[in-house]
């Protein structure tokens, strides 16, 4: 599998065009400030490992309301027990809505732990098998369908988080579309990473319209198109306002700010991104 950087360069997707041009004029009559801002805790992964409770308190003080966890070397919840992290977040006025996990040998325990927290979604964070072929993506679709049934029995919704490689083609088919077409839209949802979709030359809005109701979760990020990595809001190539203006087309329930690389301290970026959203009119 190609690296993100190699894939994007070789595919010629650096000419992003008008999709990337920032424009706030369409939202001039809207209400200022984005509400119920979420964050993917991978954004502050090191801080969560060092001091999970203290980091959650900092996020709450900034204003973040919705949370998505990610697997770590200390487990699914950064060394905290499922009920423990649920109580801590609720006491801070936040909600643990989702978690990034793997569909692997520990899947049964993963589902049980998620049910114990009371979270709504479990999101597979990467393909459970290798191979950029239609046949492999059909096999993955079967895996996802079974995983979704397990989640449904536990009262949880299952989904998948994309990267950039899913937008490669095999036999003339976009592999991401194979996943969408080969899975039940009622049971297998998608968490769209808007940044990677756009950097591959695709428009998320086209997917919202073609596959209505499939994208209840988003990763909202800005991207540096030269370095091919995430950056602070307003410093990259992604039209954040346009994306949020199309939330209804996506039937988006929650979005999570995600930033994987930083210009300085991660918490400074986290604060910048929240403040940026509060200055928008949508």
UniProtKB/TrEMBL annotation:
Xylose isomerase-like TIM barrel domain residues are 105-279
Which InterPro entries does this one have?
Answer: IolE/XylAMocC-like (IPR050312), TAT_signal (IPR006311), Xyl_isomerase-like_sf (IPR036237), Xyl_isomerase-like_TIM-brl (IPR013022)
| Keywords tagged on the record | Isomerase, Signal
Q: Name one GO molecular function term.
A: isomerase activity
What the entry lists under Pfam families is as follows: AP_endonuc_2
Q: Which residues form the signal peptide?
A: 1-28
- In terms of superkingdom, the source organism counts as Bacteria
Q: What is this protein called?
A: Sugar phosphate isomerase/epimerase
């Amino acid at each position: 599998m190609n690296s993100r950087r190699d894939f994007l360069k070789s595919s010629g997707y650096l000419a992003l065009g008008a999709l990337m041009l920032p424009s706030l004029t369409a939202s001039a009559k809207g209400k200022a400030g984005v509400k119920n801002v979420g964050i993917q805790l991978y954004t502050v992964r090191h801080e969560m490992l060092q001091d999970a409770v203290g980091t959650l308190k900092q996020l709450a003080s900034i204003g973040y309301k919705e949370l998505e966890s990610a697997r770590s070397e200390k487990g699914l919840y950064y060394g905290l027990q499922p009920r423990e992290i649920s109580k801590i977040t609720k006491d801070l006025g936040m909600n643990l809505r989702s978690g990034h996990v793997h569909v692997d040998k520990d899947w049964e325990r993963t589902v049980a732990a998620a049910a114990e927290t009371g979270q709504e979604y479990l999101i597979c964070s990467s393909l459970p098998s290798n191979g950029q072929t239609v046949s492999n993506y059909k096999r993955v679709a079967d895996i996802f369908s079974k995983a979704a049934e397990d989640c449904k029995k536990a009262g949880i919704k299952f989904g998948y988080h994309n990267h950039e490689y899913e937008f490669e083609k095999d036999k003339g088919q976009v592999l991401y579309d194979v996943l969408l077409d080969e899975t039940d839209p009622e049971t297998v949802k998608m968490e769209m990473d808007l940044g990677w979709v756009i950097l591959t030359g695709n428009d998320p809005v086209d997917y919202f319209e073609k596959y209505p109701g499939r994208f209840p979760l988003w990763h909202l990020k800005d991207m540096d198109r030269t370095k091919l990595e995430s950056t602070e809001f307003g410093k990259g190539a992604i039209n954040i306002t346009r994306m949020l203006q199309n939330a209804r087309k996506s039937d988006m329930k929650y979005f999570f700010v995600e930033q994987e690389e930083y210009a300085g301290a991660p918490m400074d970026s986290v604060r910048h991104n929240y403040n940026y959203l509060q200055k928008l009119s949508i």
